[in-house]
Design goal:
The protein has about 270 residues and is of the alpha/beta class. It has two domains: about 1-170, HUPs (Rossmann fold); about 180-274, 2-Layer Sandwich (Pantoate--beta-alanine Ligase, Chain: A,domain 2), CATH 3.30.1300.10. The chain has ten helices and nine strands. It has helices at about 5-15, 30-40, 70-80, 90-95, 115, 120-135, 145-160, 190-195, 195-210, 215-230, and strands at about 1-5, 20-25, 45-50, 85, 140-145, 165-170, 230-240, 255-260, 265-274. Strands 1-4-3-2-5-6 form a six-stranded parallel beta sheet, with helices on both faces. β5 (about 140-145), α7 (about 145-160) and β6 (about 165-170) form a beta-alpha-beta unit. α6 crosses α7 (about 145-160) and α9 packs antiparallel against α10 (about 215-230).
């Protein structure tokens, strides 16, 4: 496995590998990330991954400083998973002192996480565009756990005519149904027991929607279920799967999305409906 820490090292490695599938990460890797590597490997091309904790997608109340970091452990996992190249840029490479360009996003970035975390998706879109420019992948693999992020990146790629194919990969879950996330490491033992309530509430809501019941009442009940489980719901919504606009009745494609606070941890989840 090749490791690149400078642009010159990256360019040399990319020239040696040819077309690649790409898995951008912020490290603290778990089985969800490794599923992205496996999906990229299944396409039959070499796989590049990046590890970069992006400061511009963290708000002033977010957890940038304490975001889990384990470079040695992450590299060992990527090598075992068969990754061919790991890109480890520093902040000075991603955001040079003379840099003057960021990407402004609307559309699927406006609501939900975009409203709760102002500036978050501008930071995501900017760093992903930079990574695409540096790595120049043929395809890039993103987990559906961050469904809104997948739609924001897909919209950016389409709008800017970037020559990369975005491949969503289904959410990897623990046996309890909890979506795997690097932030799950912050959960206490009691919180980890409570956390699966979020996914269970979404599954219950999906069944009720498919049964033809009134959407607003179903969403109200789902919020009650989540709150009764010890969480503070931020939003639970039925949305158009691509635009992320809220919808009041089942339409195709539809997605149930949710965010809730459990202790100090913000949990995200989503499932398709119909």
């Amino acid at each position: 496995m090749m490791i690149a820490r400078t642009l010159d090292e990256l360019h040399a490695a990319r020239e040696a590998l040819g077309p690649v599938g790409f898995v951008p990460t912020m490290g603290a890797l778990h089985e969800g990330h490794l599923a992205l590597v496996a999906a990229a490997k299944a396409a039959g091309k070499p796989v590049a991954a990046s590890i970069f904790v992006n400061p511009t997608q963290f708000g002033p109340k977010d957890d940038f400083a304490r975001y889990p970091r384990d470079e040695a452990g992450d590299l060992a996992k990527l090598e075992k998973a068969g990754c061919d190249l790991v890109w480890l840029p520093g902040v000075e490479v991603m955001y040079p002192a003379h840099g003057a360009t960021t990407i402004h996003v609307n559309g699927p970035a406006v609501h939900w996480e975009g409203a709760s975390r102002p500036g978050h998706f501008a930071g995501v879109a900017t760093v992903v565009a930079k990574l695409f420019g540096q790595v120049r992948p043929e395809a890039a693999y993103f987990g559906e756990k961050d469904w809104q992020q997948v739609q924001v990146v897909s919209r950016m790629v389409a709008d800017l005519h970037l020559p990369v194919r975005i491949v969503p990969v289904p959410t990897v879950r623990e046996v309890t149904g909890l979506a795997m996330s690097s932030r799950n490491a912050y959960l206490t033992a009691d919180e980890r027991k409570a956390a699966p309530v979020l996914h269970a509430a979404l599954r219950h809501a999906a069944r009720e929607i498919l049964a033809g019941k009134e959407v607003a009442e179903i969403l109200h009940q789902a919020r009650h279920e989540v709150a009764s489980g010890g969480m503070v719901p931020d939003y639970i919504a039925l949305v158009h799967a691509e635009t992320l606009e809220p919808i009041a009745a089942l339409a195709h494609p539809a997605r149930l999305i949710a965010a809730a606070k459990l202790g100090h941890v913000r949990l995200l989840d989503n499932i398709p409906v119909g």
